[in-house]
Design a protein that fits this description.
There is one protein chain. The protein is an alpha+beta fold and 376 residues long. The protein folds into 3 domains: 152 residues, Elongation Factor Tu (Ef-tu), domain 3, CATH 2.40.30; 66 residues, Beta Barrel (OB fold (Dihydrolipoamide Acetyltransferase, E2P)), CATH 2.40.50.100; 114 residues. 34% of the residues lie in helices and 35% in strands. It is built from 4 helices and 20 strands. The strands form 4 sheets. Strands 2-11-14-13-12-15 form a 6-stranded antiparallel β-barrel. The chain has a 4-stranded antiparallel beta sheet with strand order 1-20-16-17, with no helix packed on it. Strands 3-10-8-5 form a 4-stranded antiparallel beta sheet, with no helix packed on it. α2 packs antiparallel against α4. The longest helix is centred in the middle third of the chain and has 51 residues. It is elongated. The two termini are 68 Å apart.
C-alpha cells in the first residue's frame, strides 16, 4: 500500500516549482547596463606622453672650415676617435700657393734683416764713407780756423772749409738716419712676413679637420674626391659610450614638466623592456613646426647599447597616488560632469577632477566609492 504522505509531498512539489520560477523571473535583481561603471579606488599615475630619439652625448657635426677637395678620409663610420685626431684632409691649390709665397717672403725678410743683409751692408758703407769725409773735413776746418784766427788765411777759405765741414756732418747724420730707417723697415717687413706665415699656417689648419672630442664617428657625409665648401657638414661625431634621450612634449603639457621627474622609456628594438631615466633639461623655445618643446632625459638605470637615432616612446611621470577614486575617461562629459545612476533614475552630477591619464580620471569630489555612473 502506497504511503499517503509521499503522495501529498509529490503533489505540492509540482505546485512549488512553477511558483518559484515566477518569483525568480519577476523579482530577480536586474543586471546593471553594460554602459555603467561602479566607482572604485586603485593606484593612479599621471604621466605625459613624449616621443623622441636615443642620441650620443656631446654629439656635434664636423663642418669644413675651408673650400676645397676632400683629399683624404682618415676615418670611417663606426671608428673610435681621440681628441685632436686628424679626420679629413682638404686640398686647395690656391692655399698652397699662398702658403709658399708667405714662406718665401719670410725667408727673404730674414735675409734682409740678418747680419749679412745686402741692404744694410750698403748703408753701413755709406755711413763709413760719410764718417771718413766728416773726419777729413773736420781736420781741414780746424786747420783753416786756426789760420783764420792768426789772420793767415782769407775769409773765403774759412767759409769754404766751414761749409764743407757742416755738409760732411749733415751727410754723416743723414746716412745714419737712413740706416736706422732701413733697419726698422726691414724689421717690420720681417714681422709682417712672420705673421703672414702664421696666418697661412692657421688657415692651413682649416684644411686639416680634427676631432674635438674622444668619441665615435656615426656618419660621414662626403666621400674622398668630392668638393666641399666652407661651413658644409662633413661628418657626425659623438660620445661612443654615453647616451641621452631627446624628447618632444606637446606645448599643452610643457607646464607640467619639471627637472628630475622620472621617465619610463620604451625602445622598439628592446621589446618588453622598460628603461628608467629622469628629465635633465627643458628647452624654452617652441618648435613651431610641430608645436612641441624639446626635453632631454638622462638614464638612471643601465642604458641600452648605443645605436644613434633609435626611436623611443616615453611617459614622464607627473605624480602618483596609491589609492585614488577613479572613473574611465570616456564617462566624463563636457563641463566636468557625469550621469549618476540612482535606482532607475539618472541625474547629472558635477565632479572635481584630480590627476588623469589617457584612460582614467581621479575624482576629488562629487562622487563616492561604489557609486554607479552611466554613459549618456
Amino acid at each position: 500500500m502506497k504511503n499517503p504522505r509521499k503522495k501529498i509531498f509529490s503533489y505540492y512539489w509540482w505546485l512549488i516549482i512553477p511558483v518559484a520560477i515566477v518569483v525568480f523571473v519577476f523579482f530577480r535583481p536586474k543586471e546593471a547596463p553594460k554602459n555603467t561603471y561602479t566607482l572604485q579606488s586603485q593606484p593612479m599615475t599621471e604621466a605625459v606622453y613624449a616621443s623622441g630619439n636615443l642620441l650620443p652625448k656631446n654629439e656635434y657635426k664636423v663642418f669644413a672650415m675651408a673650400d676645397g677637395i676632400l683629399a683624404e678620409k682618415m676615418v670611417n663610420e663606426g671608428d673610435e676617435v681621440k681628441l685632436n685626431q686628424l679626420l679629413f684632409i682638404i686640398n686647395n691649390s690656391q692655399q698652397n700657393i699662398r702658403t709658399q709665397t708667405a714662406q718665401d717672403s719670410y725667408y727673404l725678410a730674414q735675409q734682409n734683416y740678418g747680419l749679412n743683409s745686402p741692404a744694410l751692408r750698403e748703408l753701413e758703407v755709406g755711413i763709413r764713407n760719410a764718417q771718413n769725409q766728416l773726419s777729413n773735413d773736420s781736420t781741414q776746418f780746424v786747420r783753416i780756423q786756426n789760420l783764420w784766427n792768426s789772420n793767415a788765411t782769407s775769409k773765403v777759405e774759412y767759409d769754404r772749409a766751414k761749409l764743407a765741414y757742416d755738409n760732411a756732418r749733415n751727410n754723416h747724420a743723414l746716412q745714419k738716419a737712413r740706416y736706422e730707417k732701413a733697419k726698422n723697415d726691414l724689421w717690420l717687413n720681417l714681422q709682417n712676413a712672420q705673421n703672414q706665415v702664421r696666418l697661412n699656417s692657421e688657415q692651413g689648419g682649416d684644411f686639416m679637420v680634427r676631432s674635438l672630442i674622444d668619441g665615435r664617428v656615426f656618419e660621414i657625409y662626403k666621400e674622398q674626391g668630392e668638393a666641399v665648401r666652407r661651413s658644409e657638414a662633413i661628418a657626425l661625431i659623438g660620445s661612443g659610450k654615453e647616451v641621452y634621450i631627446q624628447l618632444e612634449v606637446d606645448e599643452l603639457d610643457i607646464n607640467k614638466i619639471k627637472i628630475g621627474q622620472e621617465v619610463l622609456v620604451k625602445i622598439d628594438v628592446y621589446k618588453n623592456q622598460i628603461f628608467k631615466a629622469k628629465v635633465s633639461k627643458i628647452y624654452q623655445m617652441l618648435n613651431k613646426q610641430n608645436q612641441s618643446f624639446r626635453i632631454d632625459a638622462e638614464f638612471t638605470t643601465e642604458h641600452p647599447t648605443l645605436y644613434a637615432g633609435l626611436t623611443v616612446e616615453a611617459n614622464i611621470i607627473i605624480q602618483q597616488k596609491n589609492n585614488a577614486l577613479v572613473i574611465p575617461k570616456s564617462f566624463l562629459m563636457p563641463g566636468d560632469s557625469v550621469w549618476l545612476l540612482e535606482g532607475e533614475q539618472k541625474k547629472k552630477v558635477k565632479i572635481q577632477k584630480g590627476i588623469e591619464n589617457f584612460e582614467w580620471i581621479e575624482i576629488l569630489s562629487g562622487l563616492t566609492n561604489k557609486a554607479v555612473i552611466v554613459k549618456n
